[in-house]
Amino acid sequence: MKDSFEIIPYSRALKETVLELQTNLWSPDRALNAAYLEWKYENNPYLREPLIYLAMNQGRAVGMRGAFATKWQIGNRDHTFLIAYPDDFVIDPGNRNQGLMTRIMKFAINDLGGRGFDYALNLSAGPVNTMSSLAMGWRSVGSLQPLSTETPPFLPRLRKTLKGTPFLWRLAQASRFLRSKKQPDPFLSFDRSRLRLSDQLSAKRLPEPEAMADLIDRLDYDGRLRHVRDIEYLSWRFQNPLHAYRFIFAWKGTRLRGYLVLQSHRSDLSEVVNLVDWEGETLEIKAQLLQTAIRQGRFQKLFTWGAMLCPEEKLLLKATGFVEVAQTGEEKWRNCLLLRPIQVQMLSRDWVIAGRNLMKLENWDIRLVYSMRG
Amino acid sequence: MSLRAELLLLIRESLPESESKITAETSLIKSGLLDSSSLFNLAMWIEGQTNSSLSPSSFDPSKDWDTVESILKFIQDHRESH
Asked: Does B61 touch chain A (CB under 8 A)?
């Protein structure tokens, strides 16, 4: 059975079959999938050649793993290097349980090694992907400590109350206003708020790459491993066609003093909004940004990672309703920082860059924006 | 049913018919025999048998779970340590 599959690298001629396969993962919309592939793999700021690996069966793509290049810094701002980020794992439903994931990843690791990558990283693996990664030499550096808020909106809360009340439960079923109705856009309330919130605060749909990069350059850098956030990256990052972003900026004149980035999935009806990046000259500015986001957005559920935040930032989040997401059951297999060296001989050695042990979570500064989940 | 028999049944159910003749020493993971969802099911089953919550940072499936023998030993060790 295995012999009917061939593992090959992607070429432009295979784009259509890839877009079809990805209707199982990215979205049911092939045009949207094409836009995502082009943004992520063809217009990646660090590597324009898509690193996509395919399992083919009779000319059709039945399995895929894509890796895109990410640029990191450690120790000082000038020490930068690329890390491969394998993502987008999908197997056609009719071809599962045949070991294709392992075969594709072995091929991918071999190819990435030949291209000079030393490490591969993944911040967005689901439970099954996490487990299979661990079986192939990856290690979990630790949990990214998910935090979330959940405020049930008024009408569903009322409906729940009525359903549990004698004589009134029929009202809950009959009333059009009380029927379950998905809010189509989690940013509806946010967008209704005035875009110019005050002289110091503004809300926008697009980033300010130059001002954001300038702010990041002005802020202290503690040397932990983090993604480079320069103009090139920030100009590219928020063009992800599967996601929608909103930005709140804190200004003093023309100088950016802080920003907060919110993200949601365009096709996801769960209405989760992720807080993907958050910077500020002071804690007060960060608090102001967070409070503005919550007040203007009135989101049903906000989500972020807390592992890398300082104690004061965690307190701010908790004061605005964030609680730790219990890491039990399947949940603990998500939100892991997964890492592996590309070269097999490195697997048994210490994983160190610039004197920092990569297996220690405290040596990383990870934000949701570095993950394709954000 | 013994733990060994239960484990063998779980593994055989997740394999294509042509590859269901496994022994206690058959490589399940390094060989790529078990696919990703079967591995996850195995992890859930092991958690149930050890009555403990596995931490993704605390074990190496390719070493600790590569054969039926090693999985049984892993369960035994975890039962004793809890």
From this structure: yes
DSSP at A333: G
Domains in chain A, number: 3
The answer to whether residue A373 sits within a structural domain is no
Provide the domain limits for residue A354.
2-144+331-367
Closest Cβ opposite residue A103 in set B15, B32, B60: B32
Q: Which of A97, A347, A361 would best serve as a mutation to test chain B binding (most B beta carbons within 10 A)?
A: A97
Contact criterion met (CB below 8 Å) for A82 and A71 = yes
Q: What pLDDT score does B14 carry?
A: 85
d(CA A332, CA A133): 15
Residue A177 has pLDDT above 50, yes or no: no
Give residue-wise pLDDT tens across range A114-156. Answer: 999 999 999 999 999 999 999 999 999 999 999 999 765 555 5
Rg for chain B, CA atoms, rounded: 12
What percent of chain B stands above pLDDT 90? Answer: 62
d(CA A276, CA A348): 34
Contacts of A362 (CB under 8 A, 6+ apart): A224
In chain A, residues with a C-beta closer than 8 Å to the C-beta of B34 are 99, 135
Strand partners, A250: A201, A258
User: Would you call B57 and A139 a contact, using CB atoms and an 8 Å cutoff?
Assistant: yes
Two tokens at B5? Answer: 């028999």
Is residue A372 a part of any domain in this protein? no
Is the confidence metric ipTM above 0.85 for this complex?
Answer: yes
Alpha-carbon A121 to chain mean position: 13
pTM to 2 decimal places? 0.89
Taking an 8 Å cut-off on Cβ atoms, the answer to whether A1 and B16 are in contact is yes
User: Minimal Cα distance from A90: which residue of B?
Assistant: B36
A240-260 confidence digits (pLDDT tens)? 999 999 999 999 999 999 999
What is the sign of the dihedral through the CA atoms of A66, A72, A74 and A78? positive
Question: At which of A181, A198, A227 does a domain end?
Answer: A181
Do A196 and A173 lie in one domain? The reply is: no
A22, A35 contact by CB (below 8 A): no
**Residue A374 forms part of a structural domain:** no
Q: Distance between CA atoms of A24 and A26, rounded to whole angstroms? A: 7
Cα separation, B46 vs A135, in Å, equals 15
Question: Residue A352 pLDDT > 90, yes or no?
Answer: yes
